[in-house]
Design brief:
The complex is a heterodimer of chains A (about 375) and B (about 600).
Chain A lengths: L1 H12 L10 H21 L3 E2 L1 H4 L1 E5 L8 H12 L3 E5 L5 E6 L3 H14 L8 E5 L1 H29 L2 H25 L2 E2 L1 H28 L11 H11 L1 H26 L3 H33 L2 H24 L5 H5 L3 H8 L6 H4 L7
Parallel strand pairs in A: 1-6
Antiparallel strand pairs in A: 2-4, 2-5, 3-4
Helix pairs in contact in A: 2-7, 2-11, 4-5, 6-7, 6-8, 7-8, 7-11, 8-9, 8-11, 9-11, 10-11
Chain B lengths: L14 H23 L8 H4 L1 E9 L8 H16 L7 E5 L3 E7 L4 H9 L4 E11 L9 H4 L13 H4 L5 E2 L14 H16 L5 H6 L17 H12 L5 H7 L9 E7 L2 E7 L4 E2 L3 E9 L5 E8 L1 H15 L8 E5 L2 E4 L2 E2 L7 E8 L1 H13 L5 E10 L1 H30 L2 H27 L5 H30 L4 H33 L2 H32 L3 H4 L9 H4 L16 H8 L1
Parallel strand pairs in B: 5-14, 6-12
Antiparallel strand pairs in B: 1-3, 1-15, 2-3, 4-7, 4-8, 4-11, 5-13, 6-7, 9-10, 10-14, 11-12
């Protein structure tokens, strides 16, 4: 802990800080690149929709089958006349997916399959889905997504302000795009479970963002009454201040999901558990990334356009220039970095320990 | 919820104990309730317990709009059907606007259920052999209860309704008793007379009306002919039937074979009647179409018109010809829907030609409803099977098992991480997680019987994901405390000062989570809904646990030497947290550092 704790302390004091806001253009670029890749992937490869969306049947055999996957595939193709997908599950049972058959045909196929596999038909679990079932889940999901977005924007606009609401929304859309993009690119199957996972990201992605925003709101309450820091600097400090917390919460949230994904999924190979946890895993990671690298810098960007913030930035810069000039006059070692670079060092300065030497140089800065 | 927690260190001392006691009492009470109710495990959903889940989608047909009322009626009827199988756990619920999901747990004949649920033809026209008001107070508590002919003796309704009936089956529904049957003493005595007659001659003959040949001039005594044992049994069943009892009602028409006589209940104007019915004369499927029409020419008002198929028309002509000559109530036929008499119009003459009307002083919706029942057998809408899911218990158990193992491992990883990172503080986190887990489990168990909450696989996932969300709140709070210590505060003030801010953050972010869950719950269907419910529930519990358990526990522990002195293993060691030594034990440092600290505390 001590090492991590020290990093936490130094982050807290601002001794070390990554200039998230200052380098936002890099991260915007990264995100735009990822988003474009995702959209291209979606457009070119499309999503691999599960049978819930295509219509079809899934048959699951009981454990301990002495039939090879290829053999089962042959049986299934024969019985249905359609191309079947057969997967071996973790417990040696088989999962046989046949797309494009309707409920009428399925019973016959089930009987035939059971005969081929030398099984009691009762033991062959059948999961039949009409094509519109998944579609409806998806439609409802889109509807839910839209309603949620509207409500959350209203809520955030009231609890915080509209800029934060906008930034949070952008981050949310960003997360969803990335997640679906990864699904398209990797070719994971999209099932209702995936949709569930995706929808959960909604709340979680915003949860993270909101925590950073809350700290930001608190720290910028009396911002215009001082002339030490610009909004962007405070924003950056908020991110850094909550960085340990963000990392911790993300790790803690990802651990159980990873457990579900790798261990739970490993037990069974495929199924609802995997579908949900996979999209959650991708989405949670994207959510953590976007709350740090996208949402908050975006707020800072929007904020800096406000006249009040513009004049604040001007005052802060003027003051720094003046301080630098005074220091030059006083013959004290010049703090060269301070006025040129408005990012991390400026934030770092006041929090710094005397050991660093800079504090002494900025005695004039104490005046408010 | 937040208000009592506002206190700063000065007023804190007495409070943590109270909060802890409160939540412990709540847990004990809930757990006690759980054990008392006997539901010690959460109700498992169809996917975990196994069974069949049928999803039906309503189709908009001519004249039947997909609206809430129709959907509710359909659910009601389907529920009757699946529970008619003797399955108590069967669930029928609407999902979204136009879906009905029927969950039939393992152990029932799912095929039969599947057939019954969506089909629309459990409707029969049976001749009435006898009928009377049913219930404990059979002896005519009021004229309305005893007036018998299946009609309402509403004094205000127009007798002309049936009088105008030319070639038609004159309706029961709301029809005022025509001619002979009036809400008078005579009607009462007639009803009783029938009963007496039936009691006297042990068996009315079902065969008479079934064949259509025998006893055209039937009298109550005529059926006495062939008194087989089964009929005597039926007679006894009829005598014992009390239609005011739900159990009797449910069993009355159950398993009635179309070709055999049966007993049934029917409700007319809020009063229950029992019927002894002959074999089905016309099947519901033989009604081609039925619709409610408003009779603009006569004064009949709303009527229900029926068109029969050619086969049905012939049968209907036979039965009406036979019935028309009989006295009350044997000139009636009961329209039996899923074992319940929905209407029992009487017949004045043989109706040929495949067209018939039921008239009476119907309200529009009553006529509409009867027409729907006739057209669709029972369901006001026709349904299309969307999916039929059979889940074996083994598979569900496997998945649940994997989910639980994964959840346990995930939880263990979280605990390890918390111990490594937060050391002593992780005790608080783990205790809180434990309380949270117990509360979730108990409440889920209790919600099973209370609101039919069933824990399906997505819900298990939701609960596992919620571990992270719950842990988030502690992390927010712990990091705040550590920040305060870094500012140079000692633990006790740090714990108190950190709380209001952590509290706000937790509430704001939990609200967003809850909003997402709530929207999903309201908007989505099926599996997603269960997942959303679990997420919403755990988010709420998270708030409760943090407020009433984590914070008070933290306050109490802050008094312990181990934590207060910042033991190396407490997770709150000021030195390793990097607190500023000169500021220790100084509330409001006035030194050089005052300026920089301000924006943070503002």
């Amino acid at each position: 802990m001590s090492k991590l704790g020290t990093i936490g302390a130094r982050l807290h004091r601002g001794e070390i800080a990554y200039d998230f806001v200052g380098k936002r253009m890099i991260w915007y670029g990264v995100s735009i690149l990822i988003t474009i890749t995702a959209i291209v992937g979606l457009a070119v490869r499309g999503l691999n929709m599960g049978i819930e969306f295509e219509g079809g049947a899934v048959f699951t055999t009981p454990t301990k089958m002495n039939v090879s996957v290829a053999q089962a595939e042959e049986y299934a193709n024969e019985a249905s006349g359609h191309q079947a997908i057969v997967q071996k599950l973790g417990n040696d049972s088989l999962r046989i997916q046949i797309a494009g058959i309707d409920t009428g045909q399925s019973d016959r196929i089930k009987q035939e399959l059971a005969k081929d596999l030398k099984l009691d038909p009762e033991k062959l679990a059948a999961d039949l889905v009409g094509p519109s079932w998944g579609e409806q889940i998806a439609n409802k999901a889109w509807e839910g997504l839209a309603i949620f977005m509207v409500l959350v924007v209203i809520y955030l606009a009231i609890a915080f302000e509209w800029r934060m609401a906008v930034a949070a929304l952008v981050a949310l859309i960003h997360d969803i795009t990335i997640t679906t993009g990864i699904y398209a690119l990797v070719g994971f199957e999209v099932t209702p479970g995936t949709v569930i996972g995706l929808l959960t990201i909604l709340g979680y992605s915003l949860y993270d963002t909101v925590v950073v925003f809350d700290s930001l709101k608190e720290q910028t309450k009396d911002l215009t009454k001082q002339t030490r820091f610009t909004y962007s600097e405070i924003a950056n400090r908020s991110i850094n201040g909550t960085l340990v917390r963000s990392v911790n919460t993300t790790v803690v949230a990802l651990l159980p999901v990873a457990g579900l994904l790798f261990i739970g999924g490993g037990f069974l190979g495929a199924g609802t558990l995997n579908d949900i946890s996979l999209s959650l895993f991708v989405g949670l990671a994207a959510g953590a990334y976007s709350s740090i690298f996208i949402a908050t810098p975006l707020v800072a960007d929007l904020k800096e356009r406000e006249p009040a913030m513009k004049s604040l930035t001007k005052r802060v810069l003027a003051k720094r220039a003046q301080a630098a000039a005074e220091e030059d006059l006083a013959g004290v070692r010049a703090t060269a970095g301070d006025d040129g670079d408005d990012g991390a060092p400026a934030v770092v300065g006041p929090r710094n320990q005397p050991a660093r030497g800079r504090g002494r140089g900025r005695t004039s800065g104490k005046r408010r | 919820m937040a208000a009592p927690k506002r206190g700063r260190s000065a007023s804190a001392p007495s409070k943590p104990g109270r909060s802890l006691a409160l939540i412990l009492i709540a847990i004990v009470a809930l757990a006690g309730g759980m054990f008392a109710s006997g539901h010690t495990t959460p109700r498992l959903g169809i996917d975990l317990a196994g069974g069949t889940s049928i999803t039906l989608k309503a189709k908009a047909d001519q004249g039947s709009a997909i609206n809430k009322a129709n959907m509710d009626t359909a659910v009601d009827i389907m529920n009757r059907r699946v529970n008619g199988l003797g399955v108590s756990e069967a669930e029928v619920q609407t999902q979204g606007d136009d879906n009905i999901i029927v969950n039939i747990p393992k152990g029932t004949n799912s095929k039969e259920a599947q057939e019954q649920v969506g089909t629309t033809a459990k409707l029969y026209f049976r001749p009435v052999l006898a009928s009377e008001p049913s219930g404990p107070a059979t002896k005519s508590p009021s004229p309305s209860a005893s007036a018998k002919d299946g009609s309402s003796p509403k004094p205000g309704s127009s007798p002309s309704a049936s009088a105008s009936a030319g070639e038609k089956a004159s309706g029961s529904g709301k029809e005022t008793a025509s001619g002979s049957a009036s809400p008078s003493a005579s009607a009462t005595s007639q009803g009783r007379a029938v009963t007496d007659a039936l009691k006297a001659d042990s068996t009315p003959s079902p065969s008479g009306s079934a064949s259509g040949s025998a006893t055209p001039s039937a009298t109550p005594s005529a059926p006495a002919g062939d008194g087989s044992g089964a009929d005597a049994k039926l007679q006894a069943q009829y005598a014992a039937l009390d239609c005011t009892k739900p159990t009797d009602r449910a069993n009355a028409g159950k398993n009635a074979k179309p070709g055999r006589p049966t007993v049934a209940c029917g409700q007319i104007d809020g009063a229950w009647y029992k019927y002894l019915l002959g074999p089905a004369a016309v099947d519901g499927t033989e009604v081609k179409k039925a619709q409610a029409v408003f009779d603009t020419q006569g004064a009949a008002g709303w009527q229900v018109q029926m068109n029969f198929t050619s086969k049905g028309a012939k049968k209907f002509a036979d039965i009406t010809g036979e019935l028309a000559s009989k006295p009350q109530p044997q000139n009636e036929f009961g329209i039996v829907l899923d074992g319940e008499v929905v209407s029992s119009p009487y017949v004045r003459q043989s109706i040929t030609g495949g067209q018939a009307e039921i008239s009476g002083s119907f309200q529009q919706d009553e006529a509409q409803s009867l027409a729907n029942m006739l057209s669709y057998g029972a369901l006001p809408l026709s349904f299309q099977e969307q999916s039929v899911t059979t889940v074996t218990a083994a598979l569900g158990g496997e998945q649940l098992h994997a989910g639980l193992v994964a959840g346990a491992i995930g939880l263990a990883l979280v605990v390890i991480y918390l111990v490594v990172y937060y050391r002593g503080l992780s005790i608080v986190a783990m205790a809180s997680l434990l309380v949270s887990a117990i509360l979730t489990y108990v409440i889920m168990s209790l919600l099973g019987p209370a609101i039919n909450f069933a824990l399906n696989l997505p819900a298990v996932c939701g609960a596992i994901v919620a571990i992270g969300i719950t842990a988030d709140s502690f992390i927010v709070y712990f990091e705040r405390i550590r920040d305060e210590i870094r500012e140079g505060r000692t633990l006790r003030p740090a714990v108190e000062r950190a709380w209001p801010r952590a509290r706000r953050t937790i509430l704001v972010s939990d609200f967003v989570s809850f909003l997402a869950a709530a929207v999903l719950f309201v908007v989505t269907v099926g599996k997603v809904q269960g997942f959303a419910f679990t997420l919403g529930l755990t988010t709420l519990l998270d708030v409760v646990v943090v407020f009433f358990f984590t914070k008070p526990l933290m306050t109490l522990l802050a008094r312990r030497k181990f934590f207060a002195d910042g033991h190396k293993w407490s997770g709150l060691d000021p030195k390793s947290l990097g607190a500023k030594p000169p500021l220790r034990r100084t509330r409001r440092p006035a030194g050089p550092a005052a300026g920089p600290v301000d924006p943070k505390e503002a």
